[in-house]
Structures are given as C-alpha cells and as structure tokens.
Amino acid sequence: MERSIQTISPEEAERQRFFTEEIRSLPQKPSSYFVVTYGCQMNAHDSEKIAGMLEGMGIHEAESREEADFVIFNTCCVRENAERKALGNITWLKEVRKRNPNLMIAVCGCMIQEPGMAEVILRQYRFINLAFGTSNLHKFPELLYRALNANSNTVAVEDRDVIPEDLPIVRARKEFAYVTVMYGCNNFCSYCIVPYVRGRERSRDPERILREAGELCENGVREIMLLGQNVNSYGKDLQDGTSFPSLLRQLDALGIPRIRFMTSHPKDLSDELIETMAGAKHILPQFHLPVQSGSNSILHAMNRHYTREQYLDRVDTLRRAIPGIGLSTDIIVGFPGETEQDFRDTLDLVDRVRYDSAFTFVYSPRVGTAAASMAGQIPPDVSSRRIQELIRLQESLQQDTMKRFVGTEEEVLVEGLSRRSRSEVSGKGKHGISVTLPGSEEDIGHILRCRITGLKNNTLTAER
Ligand code: 5AD
Ligand code: SF4
Description:
This protein has helices spanning 10-24, 41-56, 80-99, 110-113, 117-124, 140-148, 194-198, 206-218, 244-254, 271-279, 296-301, 308-321, 340-353, 380-402, and strands spanning 5-7, 32-37, 60-61, 70-75, 104-109, 130-132, 154-156, 161-163, 176-180, 182-183, 202-203, 223-227, 258-262, 286-288, 326-333, 357-362, 409-417, 424-428, 434-438, 447-456, 459-463. It is α/β, with parallel strands linked by helices. It folds into 3 domains: 5-163, Rossmann fold (3-Layer(aba) Sandwich); 176-403, tm_1862 like domain (pyruvate-formate lyase- activating enzyme); 406-463, CATH 2.40.50.140.
C-alpha cells in the first residue's frame, strides 16, 4: 500500500496553534500534568514534545503523577512486559480518579498504534479520556480540546506516516538534547513490531536538522544524540543525495562538543560511516550495534540480512578505525527454533566481541509479526535459563573489558550528583560508559577532564 508521507503543513501547524490558544483560555483545562514514559529514546523525545505543547497551553508540570490532574502515559509495545506494565499503571489510576473525579488520563505512543488497540481502549478502558497514536502526536492540541469538551473518550489513530516539524519541545536536560533524524523502519525483523507502529522510514530534511542542531549549539547544549530506528539508512528517501555520513560531517562542522547517534543496523553500516567517525572531531567513539543473535540460522529467521561473520567483520573494522571504541549491543534469547547450539553461538559471539554493555531480552511474541506464528516457540523456563547464563557471561566479561579504561584520560559530561555522595558527580564518558568523579552541583552540564582510577560494578571511578 502506498502511504503518503509529508511534513505537517503550515495550515495544520496553524490549526494546532489555534487549539493551543483555545485550551489556554478554557476554564475547565487541567492545571498540571505529568508524563509517564515507557520504552526507548524516541519515546522519551516524544514526551519532551508533549510537555512542550502542554506548556504552550498554560498547563505546567506537576512534581509527581499523584499531584497532577492530567496524567499522560506514553507507551511502548516492543515487548509484552512493557505493555503489561503500562496497562497495570493505567488501571491503578482508575482508583486514583475515584478520589479525584477531575483527573484526566491520556494514553499515547506505540501501544495505541497497534492494530485493534484503539477498539480495546474504547471498550475496556472507558475511563481513559484520550488515546492517540504516534502518527497523531502533532495533533495533540486539537485532540485534547475535543477530549476536554467531550462526554465520552476521544481516540485517534491514523495509518499515515508524517514528519512532525516545529513542535515545541521542553527538553529534560539543559546540556543534552535528542535530535530525530528519521522516523520509522523498513526492516521488518521478524520479531519486531516497530515497523507496524512507527510506519515506514522517512528522513527529516537535512537543513532542518542542521538548523535545530545549530540552535542547540548556540544555546549551550554540549551533547546531541541523533535518533532513528536505523540511522544508517538516513537519506535513502531524500532526493538531494544526503546520506548519514554526509549529514554527520555537516553536524560535526557546527562545533557541538559531542555527537552520538543510535540505532544502527549492521547490514547498513558502511565503511564510509566508519571513516567519517574516525575523521570527525566531535563524534564520540561509541557505537550501539545490535547483533540480536550469534547464530546464522537464527539471524536468517530473524530477517536480519547479515551473518555472524559479517557482523564480526564490522566490529573489527570499527575497532581498527577507532581504537578503544565503546561498543554496546542488543541480544534476544529464546527466539522460535533457537537450539542449544544456536544459543551457544550467541555466547561465543559475546565472548569474542567483548561489549562494554549489552541489553538482553527474552523473546516476546508480538501479534502480527512473522515470528509470532513460527514453529518452535521456546518454553519460558528455557529462555529464562538462557538469559541468566548470557547475563552472567556478559557481566564477567564486562568487568574485564572495562579495565582497559583504568589509567586513561576521560572527558565526562556531568549529568548530576552521584546517588552515593553529595561530593561526587556522575555522567557519561566519551565511550558511553558511566563515570563517577569528585565534584559538586556547579559541575552539572559541564564536560570535566579526569583520569580513570578504578571500576565499581558497571561504573568507572575517576579523579580530577
Ligand atoms: N522480543 C524481545 N525483544 C525484542 N526487541 C524488539 N522486539 C522484541 C521482541 N519481540 C529488542 C531488540 C531491539 C530492542 C530495542 O528490543 O533487541 O534491538
Ligand atoms: Fe525493529 Fe529491526 Fe526496525 Fe530495529 S531494525 S526497529 S529491530 S524492525
């Protein structure tokens, strides 16, 4: 099916500004909001946009969800437990509403975009005032206006891929900002629901990305994280020949001190990108490269389009070009048909690569994906044993891998006071690893030079 992809039009943007103003003057508008975010960085960034739109309506953030009279759940559906957690919390709010009849509840994000979910909300969760999918995010002011004036719940989901531009954003941190470079995914990995809920790949106009990044730089942002489900295919849908490496080179020239990006698909990781990173001044020596499995037959069944040998070659090339690079990954265990040998292949790959961190998941069947109806679904006790073994291996290797930083110089962007002590701060080093070092509140938002002295759990410790 052809989908129409377009940036939201000036008329549409004007329409949403109109509803923003209308809500501002509504006597029955909520006075405070709280956004509860589940899932990935994309969702975290969408929540910053929701907050931006609400502030524009004169509705301000509450200290906690208990104090808010408008609670928004920005949901994730990538695994079943993310969904279950969200639904559990939403149901809990139903009780809260009995005490506060004016409480408004909105649910948005990927879960709402799942086929059939809108009907479920209408039927089973009648107490939800407003539900809208990711494709309707830019229409939030209009939808909220409708919900505030309606007696029944308002549900909006569209099967249309848009590129939302110019939405107001309240950024969670002063020194760090997410910048979306592309939306959606075309890969249809057989386990993954993302292409169904976030639509087809669509790249933002490079001029807009550069303008946004330039403004962030002028406003003192020290680090940007470029976001996309598969940033390596950025630009394939553009007419002007911009690719991800060429975008990176232009961003690097702006002078923002630190640039990171995620996520990359190994099949699209080009030599040009690696060379660009190696030659850049501000792109951090860090790479998130999800492998998902170390077994060729499972990789094939996952529709990943690379072999373990090709993956290992990409890792070698990255390490040769950028010595000491920080590597992280995502791994799924218990994919349908995964034999003990397939799992051993995953352990073996992890042992060979020696990641600085790994996000490990038990396969979770998602309705509508190809893998959900594959033969050979793995019993939970087997998956659970496998993931524990994988975590144990990763933890033992990680301690060893991270030792390479001890004695080296690092630059840390300070995020906040350390949880352990008020005379320590913590933040991320260039390689993407958490570092704790002596400091105070005044250091937050600054990049500090330090020397790594040791290792505590998965955090590096340093002195200045
Ligand atoms: N089950 C388990 N893990 C999944 N992921 C995506 N879909 C599923 C699923 N159905 C994992 C992948 C992906 C990460 C964001 O979530 O490892 O890289
Ligand atoms: Fe999902 Fe695969 Fe797309 Fe990543 S690349 S979002 S795992 S379909």
